[in-house]
Design goal:
- The complex is a heterodimer of chains A (220) and B (309).
- Chain A is α/β, with parallel strands linked by helices and 220 residues long.
- Chain A has helices at residues 41-48, 71-78, 96-106, 111-124, 140-152, 170-187, 198-202, and strands at residues 2-10, 16-25, 30-34, 56-61, 64-65, 81-85, 158-162, 190-194, 208-212, 215-219.
- The longest helix of chain A is centred in the last third of the chain and has 18 residues, at 170-187.
- Chain B is of the alpha+beta class and 309 residues long.
- Chain B folds into 2 domains: 2-59 and 163-308, no CATH class; 71-151, no CATH class.
- Chain B is 70% helix and 7% strand.
- The chains are: A alpha/beta (220), B alpha+beta (309).
- At the A-B interface, helix 2 and helix 3 of A face helix 7 of B.
């Protein structure tokens, strides 16, 4: 599903921030992406999200080399990728329901069509009672569950999460990772979850992609 | 006041707008577009009024020619007048011809010489007013040739007047159109700045939309929808204000002047009556401004996104 071969990344004329990344991510797998701050986790996630192109090497996603894709094709491929951010990035002027429904609205679905699915998903993540509340009234955990619901509502093939537990307490962090695990198990979604919280990783047995100074090692 | 008026306008139903209404510099832009709409509608109305008056005036003047017979020694004025009337009436395309009486001729001189003067001792030129049935088919050249037989007779077709009038009206119309173009250009520039400001304010929303797979076209459409709404409201308010302005000016002009003076000014400058076609042209300012606003914002957003993506 995802294959990196000798991938390097630099911003402009600066030094390389990622060096010689070579790895494969199989469909339906779950990986933690970890490493110290500044190791390049966010840069790797941006490569996976197709918002950056590698400076060298080859990135293949869903069987296509992404280096030569047109903007339109990149856009179509990005719709197969969901993303969850540490800072949630919910739109404050929309309700929780409208935030979660946003990817379907972007795809052109009418509200009558997506309303049952969004409602069902919000109930599944425990926000059924809060769907009409604006994000400003949600707790940190609720915001992150809303952000996860928004990322998965369009059934992406790959779900990326950039420090999704960074703004919640340890107990809630664990529950959030369980939620990702449930999505991986029930929907077969490929998940790459970036975090630098080592105690959290120890609670799960998923393989770890360890980034250090721009170099990647995988520990199964 | 504006908010009360806006609350009367129909609101878009369905899901909440992705671009928040308050994040676009809505009130300032709305006021600016209202002013531009008002100026456009007033300019357009002025152009319509001038053109209509010029056409009506030119048409009236064109339906009449004047034969002037100057006193010449050895010639009998009354006889020459009768001959001129006969020649005119015999000319194809002439509806009627009538010699002005001495009293009427003297009255014409009153504005220059004053009233109460006895002009019977002075021989003054006499006029024959010729009404044309059809200005196009009237044989003016033939009449001019025939009048050569009368000593001291000349024919005034008011061609120089009409030419000058048409030139003046054409200049005013062209100037009005140029002002409209400048108003349009100023509106476009203001919308470009407002859109760029809105894009900067909503950078976070644009990023989120990109991350969830929205195309540049979709994002541009969201901003366009917001600006279209502001353009429609501004165009509507500006045009309504312009129509009220014309109504007010027309009523004030009618009430402030005595009826005779009002009638004369009406003959000279028209009656501030825009007519159905004039009203339709002014109302057309609303969709034109709305479309201008929507298209400009869409193009600005697309250019901004293609530069930043």
């Amino acid at each position: 599903m995802i294959e990196f071969s000798d991938v390097g990344l630099r911003y402009g004329n600066g030094p390389e921030v990622l060096h010689d990344l070579t790895f494969k991510v199989e469909p339906g797998s779950f990986h933690f992406l970890t490493g110290p701050s500044g190791a390049g986790k966010t840069s790797l996630l941006r490569l996976l999200l197709l918002s950056l192109k590698p400076s060298r090497g080859r990135v293949t996603m869903f069987g296509e080399d992404v280096s030569h894709l047109s903007q339109d094709r990149l856009l179509q491929m990005r719709r197969h990728i969901g993303i969850v951010f540490q800072e949630f990035r919910l739109l404050d002027h929309l309700t929780t329901f409208e935030n979660v429904a946003l990817p379907l609205r972007v795809l052109g679905q009418p509200e009558a069509e997506y309303r049952p699915n969004v409602t069902e998903l919000l109930e599944w993540v425990g926000l059924g009672e809060r769907m009409n509340a604006p994000p400003s009234l949600l707790s940190g955990g609720e915001k992150q569950r809303a952000a996860i619901a928004r990322a998965v509502i369009a059934r992406p093939k790959v779900l990326l999460a950039d420090e999704p537990t960074g703004n919640v307490d340890p107990e809630l962090s664990s529950r959030l990772v369980h939620l990702f695990a449930e999505l991986n198990r029930t929907l077969g979604m490929t998940i790459i979850l970036a975090t630098h919280e080592l105690p959290l990783l120890d609670k799960f047995s998923y393989p770890r992609m360890l980034l250090n100074k721009g170099e990647l090692t995988i520990h199964d | 006041m504006i908010e009360r008026l806006l609350s009367l306008l129909p609101r878009r139903g369905g899901a909440a707008p992705i671009v928040p209404e308050k994040s676009v510099a809505g009130r300032t832009l709305l006021l600016m577009i209202t002013i531009m709409g008002f100026l456009s509608a007033v300019t357009l109305g002025g152009v319509v009024l001038v053109q209509k008056s010029a056409i009506a005036w030119s048409s009236d003047v064109g339906r009449e020619v004047t034969i002037q017979i100057r006193p010449v020694s050895g010639e009998v004025m009354d006889s020459n007048l009768r001959t001129a009337v006969s020649l005119a009436e015999a000319t194809p395309g002439v509806a009627s011809a009538r010699a002005l009486t001495v009293e009427e001729s003297q009255k014409l001189l009153e504005p220059w010489l004053g009233a109460g003067l006895d002009l019977s001792a002075i021989e003054i030129p006499r006029l024959v007013v010729v009404q044309l049935a059809d200005p196009v088919d009237a044989d003016i050249e033939g009449l001019q040739r025939n009048l050569a037989a009368i000593k001291g007779a000349s024919l005034d077709t008011h061609a120089a007047w009409r030419q000058q009038l048409n030139t003046m009206a054409g200049t005013i119309v062209l100037s009005g159109l140029l002002v409209l173009v400048l108003i349009g250009a100023a509106t476009v520039l203001a919308i470009i700045f407002a859109t760029r400001g809105a894009m900067a304010t909503n950078r976070e929303i644009v990023d989120v939309l990109h991350y969830i797979g929205a195309s540049n076209s979709f994002i541009a459409g969201e901003f366009q929808g917001r600006f279209l709404s502001i353009g429609l409201q501004g165009g509507l308010l500006g045009t309504a204000a312009a129509l009220a302005f014309f109504l007010l000016v027309g009523t004030a002009a009618g009430n402030m002047l005595p009826s005779e003076a009002g009638a004369q000014i009406g003959v000279l400058f028209g009656r501030f009556a825009l007519g159905l076609d004039g009203l339709l042209m002014i109302v057309a300012v609303i969709p034109v401004i709305a479309a201008l606003t929507a298209v400009t914002s869409r193009q600005t957003v697309r250019r901004y996104l293609s530069q930043t993506s």
